Amino acid sequence: MKHESPIKRRKSRQIMVGDVPVGGDAPIAVQSMTNTNTCDVDATVGQITALQDAGADIVRVSVPSMEAADAFGKIRERVSLPLVADIHFDHKIALRVAELGVDCLRINPGNIGRDDRVSAVISACRDRNIPMRIGVNAGSLEKELQRKYGEPTADALVESAMRHIDILDRHDFQNFKVSLKASEVFMTVEAYRKIATQIDQPLHLGITEAGGLRSGTVKSSIGLGMLLMDGIGDTIRVSLAADPVQEIKVGFDILKSLRLRSRGINFIACPSCSRQNFDVIQTMNDLEVRLEDVNESLDVAIIGCIVNGPGEAKVADIGLTGGSPKNLFYRAGKPNQKLDNANLTDDLERLIREEIARKKEQEDAIIARTGK
Question: Of 172, 227, 308, 342, whose CA is between 20 and 30 Å from 52?
Answer without folding.
Answer: 227
